[in-house]
Amino acid sequence: MTRKVCVITGSRAEYGLLRWVMQGIKDEPTLTLQVIATGMHLSPYFGDTYQEIEGDGFVIDRKVETLTEVDTPVGIAKSMGTGMIGFADAINELCPDLIVVLGDRYEIFSAVAVALVAKVPVAHIHGGELTEGNFDDSLRHSISKMSYLHFVAAEEYRNRVIQLGESPDRVFNVGGLGVDNIARIELISRDDLEQELKFTFHKQTLLVTFHPVTLDQDSGAKQMTELLSALDSFPEIGLIFTMPNADPGGRWITGLIENFVGSHSNAVSFVSLGARQYLSVMACVSGVVGNSSSGLLEAPSLQVGTVNVGDRQRGRIQAESVISCEPNQLEIYTAITKLLSKEFQNIVQKVVSPFGNGGSSEKIVQTIILKTNENLGTKYFYDIIVGRQ
Q1: Contact 167/382 with Cβ under 8 angstroms?
Q2: Chain centroid to CA 122: how far?
C-alpha cells in the first residue's frame, strides 16, 4: 500500500527549495505525492507562482486561499485564520499519511496547526534556525514543536531542535536544500539571461532583495530607505531587485523600490524570477545585498559574496563570504565597497558552504520512505537534562 505524502507550499522561495523533494516523492513507487498550494502562490500581485509548480509537472491537489492582498498585522492575523479554515477542509479531503512543510511562514504555521488537531504527522524542513529580526523566528520554533520529523541544515540547528524537546532519533541533519538545488538546476547563461530579463549586466551588478523586518515598528521601510540611499552612491553598478514577501510592511518596500527603479536607468525590478532565473542571476552578479536568507544559504555555494543588512537574519550560520552590517547608509555603503573589492572577491572564490555538498533531497525522501512504514504516533518531550523522554 502506498503512503500519501502531502507537500504544502506558500511562496516562490519555499517551492524552489522543495522542488526536488517533491520530485523524489513523486518518483517513489511506495509513496503518492499530494500538493497543496497556498499563500503568495495564488496571488496575481506576487506573480501567480502556482503556475511554476504546474509547469514543473506537478498536479496541485488543492489550493487554499489566504488574504495575501493585505500586509497589516490585523490583515496577516485574519489571513492565518482564513488559511486554517481552508487547510481544515483540504487535509480532511486528502487524508494524507504525512505532511511535509518547510520554514517559517505564517500560512505554514496555520497548516501545521490544523494537521496537529487532525492527528496527521508533520515533517518540518529547515527548523532550528534563528532569524531574530522577524516574528517568523517564533513561528518556526512553534512549527517544530508541532512536527514529528525534522530535517535540518546543520548540526547547530539539529542541537537547537533537540533543545526544544524533540527526540534525537527524529532529527536529521541533511544539509541545506539550497545547496542541493544549485547542484540539480541547469543555470541559464549570462547572454540568455540578458535576453530573458531585457537587462544588460554591468561590469559589476548586484542582486538586491530586502524583506520587511516584522519585529520592527517601521516594518523595514526606514531600513529600505537607508539601503536605497547607499545604492544611489554606486551609479555605475547594475542593480537587479526582487520584490519582498507578503509580510507586514511589504507594500511600502515595494513602493520604494518601484520609485527608485523608475528614476535609475541602472536598475530593474521583478516580482518573481522563479528558482532557475533567480539562481542564474545570483551566479552572474558581483554580490547579493539585502536581508534574504538566500544570501546566506545559496550564495556561498555559488562563490558569491553577500552584504547582509540589519537583524532579519541574525542568528543564522554565516560563511566567510557574508558581510553583516547595520541598516544605515554609511555602514551599507562601506560593506558594499568591501564586497566589491578585489581582496574580498578573492576570499569569496575560496569559500566553502557550511550547509554541505548536496544530496539533502534524497536523504529526506529516503527517511520519509523509512519512517512512513513506522507508526508515527504520540511523541514525548525529550529532556536534555536527563537525556530521555
Answers
A1: yes
A2: 18
Q: Can you give the pLDDT at residue 389?
A: 58
Please give the Cα distance from 154 to 33 (Å, whole number).
27
**Strands of 62-64's sheet in order across:** 62-64, 31-38, 3-9, 98-102, 122-125, 149-152, 171-173
- Crossing angle between the packed helical segments 360-371 and 177-184, to the nearest 10 degrees: 120
pLDDT tens readout for residues 244-269: 876 666 788 899 999 999 999 999 99
Backbone angles phi, psi at 288, to 5 degrees: -115, 135
DSSP state of 6: E
pLDDT at 217: 54
Instruction: Report the range of poorest mean pLDDT among 73-77, 91-95, 106-110.
Output: 73-77
Alpha-carbon distance of 216 to 111, in angstroms, equals 26
Q: How many CB atoms lie within 10 A of CB 51?
A: 13
| Domains and their CATH numbers in the chain | 3-175+359-371 (3.40.50.2000), 186-348 (3.40.50.2000)
The amino acid sitting at 168 is P
Q: List Cα–Cα distances, 173 to 16, 151, 296, 343, in angstroms.
A: 20, 6, 18, 34
Phi, psi of 146 (to 5 degrees): -90, 0
**pTM (2 d.p.):** 0.82
Cell of 42: 495564488
pLDDT band at 134 (very low <50, low <70, confident <90, very high): low
What proportions of the chain, in percent to the nearest 5, are helix, strand and coil? 45, 15, 40
